[in-house]
Structure formats: structure tokens, C-alpha cells
Structure prediction request, 253 residues.
Amino acid sequence: MAEKENSNSPLQKIPRHVAIIMDGNGRWARKRHLPRVAGHRVGLEAVRKTIKGCIASGVEALTLFAFSSENWRRPKDEVGVLMNLFLSALQSEVKKLDKNGVRLRVIGDISAFNEELQQRIIDSEALTRNNDRLCLNIAANYGGRWDITQACRYLAGEVVAGRLQSGQITPELIRQQLSLSDLPEPDLFIRTGGEQRISNFLLWQLAYTELYFTDLLWPEFDEQALTEAFASYAGRQRRFGRTGEQVEQGGHA
Ligand code: IPE
Ligand code: IPE
Ligand code: MG
Prediction:
């Protein structure tokens, strides 16, 4: 019964896949006259709460934007702290994630990270690969344009090798080569920190995602804030190009 209540029945309108831009760590810290990196450290607590809330609600997949392909432009010190924080969070959290049935994956070009971090990522993914309670995807050195580019590169290689004709390339074929192709596309996108932009997050995958913006800074985000985002999502009508009347008559996508 409990499992049923947590299931993703369309009636409850719990998003199956939630994607979050965790923004506002720096401003949270500056408001407190702390160095920006203090905000990143406290932000980890908001990550824990969000994972917990998603598991409790029966969300299937959670994708968190942790470091964009453009974040290398930040001061060297801040980039260094973010890398160390990522490494230490993997070390300290992965056992607990595993125990809670979380499957961890990292999306993005991880070849840019140092060997230790790359190895830690590979080990964490291997340890949790058979878990199926929540699929947690961390986007690190990720960019939506990179994602589409690597899919195009793969398909171009197939054409050159004679295994595919250019005329056979369809949106579905491109989709299959993108990150997260085995998951439903995000139903709900959340961005904290007040900015209303995508910042090169999942460009293709967000085509029909419901967008939700909150002024809360990421370290302030908690289960209550997540519930509010879910409530907003539940009140929306997703039409996927159809009319409202068609959708009301049960014409789901
Ligand atoms: C988001 O918080 C974390 C990362 C981009 C890694 P920010 O560091 O962007 O915080 P603000 O936007 O400067 O407040
Ligand atoms: C987006 O936040 C990236 C992450 C949260 C990891 P940014 O703070 O980098 O985005 P912009 O630069 O304000 O668009
Ligand atoms: Mg920011």
C-alpha cells in the first residue's frame, strides 16, 4: 500500500523526473559576509534534503546541475574548491546513497577532471548501478550544447563508416545518443536563485518540461520548497501541442 501511494500515478501528478539548477550558493554566502565557497559547502545539505524528498515522493529520477561547462571561467580557487567538494561528497555520501537504493550517475565530459575524481566517479557508479529506487544524475562539466554535439559526432561517425545514411537521422536517433536517453525526459525543471534562464543545462531534454523558478537561494532549499514546486507542477496542464479540450478528454501525449 505504501508503495502504491508513492507510485507515479498520473492522478497524483508527481513528476517522474526532476531536473534542478542549484543556483545562488555564492549570493547566500556573500549575504552572510562569508566567502562564496561557504555557500557551496552548505549547499550540500540542500542536496541531501532534495534527494530525501524525491525518494519520499516516489520521484524516479533527479538530475542536479553541479558544474557547467562554463563554470571553468570562475576564479581558479573557486573551481578548485568545487572539485574538492565534489570528490569529498562522493566519498562521504556514496555508501549512504547505495543503502537508500539510489543509483548514481555523472553526466558531462568527465575527462577534464583529475584522475582521482574520474576514478571516484567510476567507482561510485559501479557500486550503485543495480539500485532502482531513485536515479540520481549529477551533471558535472555538463553543457546542453556539448551533449548535442557529442550525439552529432557519434552519428556523423556512423555515416562515415557507412552504417547510417544522413537521411536516416531523425530526432529520435539523436535523442538516443544524448545523456539520460534511458530515462523519461524531465517533467519538472527547478531553478533556485531567482535567475530565469537555462544556462546551457539539458537543452534538448527540456523541450516540453514544466519550468519552475524560485527566489530561494540553493542553501535555503528544503523539503518544504520541493513540495511547493511539486504543487505548482500538479496544477499545470501539459498539452504537448494539443488543445486543452483534447487533454481534458484524456488525450495524453
Ligand atoms: C551555484 O551557485 C553553484 C555552481 C554554479 C557551482 P553559484 O555559485 O552560481 O551562486 P551565485 O549565483 O553566484 O549566487
Ligand atoms: C548554472 O549556474 C550552473 C550550475 C548551477 C551548476 P550559473 O550560476 O553558472 O549560471 P549563470 O552563469 O548565472 O547563467
Ligand atoms: Mg550562479
User: Anything to note?
Assistant: The radius of gyration is 19 Å. Confidence is low (pLDDT under 50) at residues 1-10.
